[in-house]
Amino acid sequence: MTRNIPVSLEINGDPHDLRVALSDSILDVLRDQLQLTGAKRGCNQGVCGACTVLVDGRAVRGCLTNAAACEGEAVTTVEGLAEGLTLHPVQEAFVEAGAMQCGFCTPGMVLATAALLSENPTASREDVVQALSSNLCRCSGYQVIIDAALAALETGVEIGGEAGA
Amino acid sequence: MSRSRKLTSGVKQSLPHDSAHKHVSGEALYIDDIPEPPGTLFAAFGMSEKAHAEITGINLSKAKAAPGVVAVAAAEDIPGDNNCAPVFGDDPIFAEALVEYVGQSIFAVAAETVEQARRAARLGRVTFKERKPVVTIDEAMAAKSFILPPYTMQRGQSSRALSRAKHRIQGRVEIGGQDQFYLEGHIALAVPQEDGDMVIYSSSQNPSEVQHLVAHALGLSSNAVTVEVRRMGGGFGGKETQPALYACIAAVLARKTGRPVKARVDRDDDMIMTGKRHEFVTTWDVGFDDRGRIEGIEFDLAARCGMSADLSLAICDRAMFHSDNAYYLSNVTIVSHRCKTNTVSNTAFRGFGGPQGMVGIERVMDEIAFTLGLDPLDVRRANLYGGKGRNITPYHMTVEDNVLPELFDELEKTSRYRKRRREIESWNRTSPVLKRGISLTPVKFGISFTTTFLNQAGALVHVYNDGSVHLNHGGTEMGPGLFVKVAQIVAEEFQIDVDRVKITATNTGKVPNTSATAASSGTDMNGMAAKNGARTIRDRMAAFAADMGGCRKAEVVWGYDAIRAGKKRFTFAELTKAAYLGRVQLSAAGFYATPKIHYDRDKATGRPFYYFAYGASVSEVMIDTLTGEYKVLRTDILHDVGESINPAMDIGQIEGGFLQGMGWLTMEELWWDKAGNLKTHAPSTYKIPAASDWPEKFDVRIFERGRNKEATIHRSKAVGEPPLMLAISVFSAIGDALAGACGHQISPDLNAPATPEEVLLTLEDMRARLSAGAGLAEAAE
Ligand code: FES
Ligand code: FES
Q1: Is the pLDDT score of B606 beyond 60?
Q2: B25–A91 CB contact, under 8 Å
Q3: Which fold has domain A4-80?
Q4: pTM
């Protein structure tokens, strides 16, 4: 497939004028054109959530999201979450809780949590479990991940603006 | 520099994962994240669509002519051996005359883009003459289709004991397989070097094996190939032998084209092409007394090995080694059949056959209890190893470190098992549809590779003259925090902060001839090798310091970043610099070979394990008898990790292992059709546990009195595999709930995975048996 469709995206705050193929997902564009490899290709079919990115602040599956259809949108990847050397509170909470083993699911989990916090800052444990149930982790028992998400919630930081910015 | 007087980042500390920061920020590189070298091509595979067929023709001309294709390779393009098998030489890289499973690779394409490679691969034309496939264990047993000879372990006289026993029952359980479902699929990147050498980046638990197999496939010696692994996105045994196929394909294509080649496997292809946990059909004949104590038992274990031997010999052996789980079997015969089927060759998966062995004996415990109307916990207790003359395994090894009686006492108390059992019984009497069940099951897991020579490890330690340390060892990082644990061990040895120890990618050029990171032995062996390397350097530095300080070496006091020799005082960096100027060698290779172990396979006797790891868990479930659906209400775990090197990492292993085991026994269903096609080859049809499957209440504790009797690294115990089997308590609790649903008059013939459908079928079968029994009783009256 030739990359013949022009698309303008804002990625992690920077404007990008790109050319994409009709079949390209946003995950393809991020990983293969921009070397932003934080979003992972886990299943490439919308089930695992390892490819999660934020589009205008909402968590989406990068592998299922058509790149050409994102014209004009703001995309945040895990690389764009920290402010310089300062980690985002969710990232901080994941490090603090030790919420990773192999780490392959981590970027997706972090972004899914960030989106949840901005949408529902008073989310209960059940809400967290529900929200993270579409992100798979094969290594952990999820307990640490849920704890990390709850800890991030507790810091009470409203990150909606930041995450989408 | 921190000035506290004690090291706080050595062993027995819950340090975070060394890559934690990189993981949350997306900086941690997996192989698919490494910037591709210029000119990199992408591979796609031509696979068999038949489970068993002769190849009558291969026509690749259309594939070769497809856009973007640079090369196509089949068997005749392999310069060296057409083999990627770990032990028995029976896994071709590309099938030549015969295909033996659906998904077997026949050829591969290298093209400019992934998409072009995949399209071209679909254009290869292969014609077949079909043969009848053998798919199931039952078919293989009937056809006497075996990949390896049967094997028997024996102690005492089981048949005599059986005929004399007061009670005697037979049973059978089918145990399903499991896909490893590492989130990062298989991948290899081959980069050609000068002299025809090859560098391979492989997502592999066993870089040395990849190195040797790639070298031989290219017709080179091993010194021409270097394999590097920084980290994997999960392995679980699925990357012990399976990566070699993709590394060999990438290397053959790279050789042919002179360009780097990346072989990244699609999720569905990964599930179709690569081996999984072995399915088992286990039958038993057991005799026991009124207390439920086993007097004689015979087990028959039939395993689906698939089309080749792979690691099946050792896996089936390990199933036998764990057919006793935690129980003394006085008169025992265990027979194992290694079935050859036209399905993908099954391979390692966390527990390596041990879990399947344990499920058999745990089912026996439950059946004995249901037969006698006893609490299954009392039957388990009556059979535990311990007491006079009751500590010899079926393979004649003496169990010397059993902590289960104590561990049971503690867990029974903290989980309030007895009280809850009574509550559940009365609750079940009044609840018409929902039924609850509870079970406490133990784990005793043997630590060491049962293939004795594999129990060796190497490490390389450099101290640079600024006092920083470079650490390398043969273990690979797939998640459990092996790297940070080994770094903690080296930090402890040198008494310096762990952040001064640089952890580096596993590389066959640094440490040769390593064993797979498997058998839970990663920290035990690599930690010890690294410690030995560090100790060699420290000894040299201490001798040098003694010279400087005019004292004896034994008088040197080595504290936290402070070394004192006579009147001289050094920081670690100062001493390093001085030692360097004094021409002291500051680099060492460490080595370790596990002591005490031996096993005579012909006699089936010996001490295959250095020690055992123990644990136990209590799970409570509630099933809906109308739908078969159920929920795990609560799980309590008590696990022995010896003296933990990193308790946080160990808890992570226990929780993750438990959930993975629960997935295996309750929801993950592999389903093949009659023609040998795997029908559950996508994450949409093959379900692994999600966050919502985690038990509602969960309590995990490390057994505080735990200490390894053997002189392992800082008296710790391996923790990678054993916790997976803690999930047997969930399977057993489902059985208990089913028995409860039928008034504890009949035992459930529950098979694994106990999916809601399986639960419902089992219940129907129980009710049918009950009413047939009632009918018979009436007829007899
Ligand atoms: S890679 Fe997108 S959901 Fe799995
Ligand atoms: S940490 Fe490995 S998949 Fe989640």
Answers
A1: yes
A2: yes
A3: Ubiquitin-like (UB roll) (3.10.20)
A4: 0.96
